[in-house]
User: What shape does this take?
Amino acid sequence: MTNCIEIRGLVKQYKSFTLGPIDLKVPGGSIMGLIGENGAGKTTLIKSMLGIVKPTAGTAVLLGADPDRAKEDIGMVLDDCFFSEYLRVRDVETVLCRVFKTWDKGLYRDYLDKFGLSGAKNIKELSRGMRMKLSLAAALAHRPRLLLLDEATAGLDPVVRDEILDEFLAFVSDEDHAILISSHITSDLEKVADYIAYLHQGKLLLCDEKDRLLESYGRLVCAREELEQVDRGYVVATRKSQYSTEALIRRRGDFKRLYPRLAVEPVTLDELMVFVVKGDKA
Assistant: This one.
């Protein structure tokens, strides 16, 4: 299976923040979810991959080519609509059909209908959610092979989000296509992502298949005395209260066999993030 994204040793240095070094691969036919707190470096990573900001070090290969050469085959939605607010929705087509040789007018209009967007409306009249729909319609209308999405489902109601997630799954049904999507709505990523990459303070802490991550880690709730008897090799982080202790456990299956009397629950991506960021390290 060919990788649609290959990042090697990518670093972006600012005065008060450093991203990387990042090594990351996204296979064709897959969706990678990029998670992390605000300021973790998710947007910086996407912009560095595209060359919107120049990396300090490292390389990004998109669809087997330099990002500049691959632009025709990349659909991009950043965290806000980048079209002039004085344009009408229909004017976006007039602009972008000159940029992308593969622009499909019929497909663009189909997406406008699907997302409930009127071509006559000015962009400045649109809500944030409607602007995100417009950006998605424009990103998909030139039939890209790679989608890079930064909070693309933010501001959308659950029904529309579900429709868009279905679009994403259809998009990657061809192994020649892939998606990298950053999102704070981790429940969306739990539905559609094949891989999860977790950024924290510019560092890539975890990167693995989503199902493997969720199967590997667990949440243990027990008394402090019980936790003290646990092999520390299984404990990633802890959170203590007056009455009990929670612990993030790695290798959940092995742990359950070794400590059958201790209840270990599956974790969500949200819980995994909270433990890593706010928990006391083991």
